[in-house]
Amino acid sequence: MNRKNIILTLALLLFGWQLLSGQTTISNIPSTDVIEPRSFYGEVNFGGHFSKYETGGFQTYGVKSLYGLTRNVEIGANFTYTRNGADSPVEFGPNVKWKAFQNEKHKVAVTGGLMAFIPVRAAEGSRPIAMVYANASKGFDFAKGFRLTGGFYQLVGAKAGSGNRKGAILGYEQTVYKKISFFADWTSGKNRFGYAAAGLSIPLSKRNIIYAGYNFGNGGRGNNWFNITFGRFF
Question: What is the CATH classification number for the domain harbouring 158?
Answer without folding.
Answer: 2.40.160.40
